[in-house]
């Protein structure tokens, strides 16, 4: 049963609107790319993305979210984000920062992992109502590596499979 989600990620809304405006303005988009690709070599590393976020968009400075966005943007064994992937990187940064916000709300131990008790307590924050058995089964599905805790990458995969709307 799906209900209304109680975790809000609206703190990203204003910046997301600003980024949409930049994406729709080729000159502004090129300016941001040049700020990111400060050495002008046509592609950017994770370290360059980290520096750019800290300087330009500190609200997005969440390392686990940044890593997921980076990994979801780079393809084919290439360790760099290319200029033609820049818009995808921007989109992914917002998606994963919103997911990180939700993940942190459930991770009450602040250890970047969700254990079964936290999952049981936090499932309602996702707007879900599960029986005890369903919670346990869902936890086992999410905990892909069987480590007894849900990692952020596992949480992201689960949210994507379930197609949960995150704000």
Task: Describe the protein in words.
By secondary structure, the protein is mainly alpha-helical. The protein has a two-stranded antiparallel ribbon with strand order 1-2. The protein contains 8 helices and 2 strands. The longest helix has 21 residues, at 86-106. It is elongated. It is 56% helix and 2% strand. It has helices spanning 13-23, 26-36, 46-56, 63-73, 86-106, 116-122, 132-142, 152-162; strands at 43-44, 81-82. Helix 4 runs antiparallel to helix 5 and helix 5 (86-106) crosses helix 8 (152-162). The model has no long low-confidence stretch (mean pLDDT 90).
Short description:
With 167 residues, the chain is mainly α.
Please tell me how large the radius of gyration is.
17 Å
Helix content: 55-70%
Number of continuous helical runs = 8
Low-confidence stretches: none
Shape: elongated
Indicate the mean pLDDT.
90
Structural class: mainly alpha
Q: Give the SSE string.
A: HHEHHEHHHH
- End-to-end CA span: 18 Å
Oligomer: single chain
Relative strand content? under 5%
The counted number of beta strands is: 2
Profile the largest sheet: 2 strands, antiparallel
Spatial order of strands in the largest sheet: 1-2
